[in-house]
Design brief:
Layout: H1 2-21, H2 26-35, H3 43-62, H4 72-90, H5 98-115, H6 121-148, H7 156-176, H8 180-207
Helix pairs in contact: 1-7, 2-4, 3-4, 3-6, 6-8, 7-8
Length: about 230
Amino acid sequence: MEATISQNFANILSTLTILSCLFLKVPQIMYIKQKKSAEGIYVQAMLMEIFGFSIMTLYNFTNNYGIMTYLEYPIILLQVYVMFYYVLKFKKMLASSAVPLTTLAYFSAVVGFVTGALPKGILGYLVPFCTPLSGFAKVTYIYGIIKEQNADAVSLTTWVISVSTNLARIFTVYVDSADFKLLLNFLVSTVLSSAVLGTAIYFKKCTSPQPTPRPRRKSVAQHYHSD
């Protein structure tokens, strides 16, 4: 009975997590498009996100874990692809010869794991690296905010959702598979996402324009003359 209740609650959390991730990166994508600038966003951080999300998606898929326990990964990954395109575009890096070569190698590896051409055991060795990858990516975000002394390019909504979904995933993964590698990854991700959120909130408050006080009108002294 308790197991059934836990599983049902985990399914509800999984559904809410997936729904909240549908627009996780949208605020940042819209900001980049509006400003036509990717200032403060590091390509290295985005590459680490792409590789981390890809490995986690493939690991769960090849191990036949419940789709509801990891569906947010491919959903977020699609959004990161779009965001990465605009970052490269506004950093004027799309013309680089490394872009098509890296893209071809990346998608060839993805297809290889999905079709079984590449052994899934490789992913088991790569999953532990997702935790430091995710960590370095988030530390890079924090570094960028502190270096620029500005968090305007950071969407608080994105990071609130990130913290919430990571917390939810700790519970759902524990109920579904209790996979230690996945639990550790979500725990570290929760802590670091909270750190990014806290840093962004701090610098948004520091850089928010202060209301200018209204100048006081000088009182006109009235002079009374007695005749």
